[in-house]
Amino acid sequence: xxxxxxxxxxxxxxxxxxxxxxxxxxxxxxxxxxxxxxxxxxxxxxxxxxxxxxxxxxxxxxxxxxxxxxxxxxxxxxxxxxxxxxxxxxxxxxxxxxxxxxxxxxxxxxxxxxxxxxxxxxxxxxxxxxxxxxxxxxxxxxxxxxxxxxxxxxxxxxxxxx
Length: 162
Prior knowledge:
By secondary structure, this protein is mostly beta strands. The chain has one domain: Endonuclease/exonuclease/phosphatase (Deoxyribonuclease I, Chain A, 4-Layer Sandwich), CATH 3.60.10. The protein is 7% helix and 29% strand. It has one helix spanning 80-91, and strands at residues 10-13, 24-30, 33-39, 60-65, 94-96, 104-105, 113-114, 117-122, 129-133, 145-149.
């Protein structure tokens, strides 16, 4: 879900994905950047082709459940989707905003926490974006992740946090 302040003008972006992609998503354009919320089913390995739509936008916030595991964001193991997502970070100049706070609690198997819901942002916008995992679940096995953009600050005014 993407929530936008009612006073902001925005438009819906047609998120046309390759025919062989099971990636689901929606996109909006606000000011001079795009926001996407995506879902990648656990049985669907991400491919570089399924993320090609990112090439169309220079300033992007990409949020969602990627079902991607990688040590960079605290996973105990790496899967194909995790490797593909890390490649996309480099190709599209994106930064992971998440800390290692888990966002998903598995109710099956070993009842473990993991970080599946990621917030990725163009590196030029990383200094004006924040992301926070809440303790709210809203009937899901995923925590709510809030992401905010400080629109009163221009990205070039701040260095990218390390």
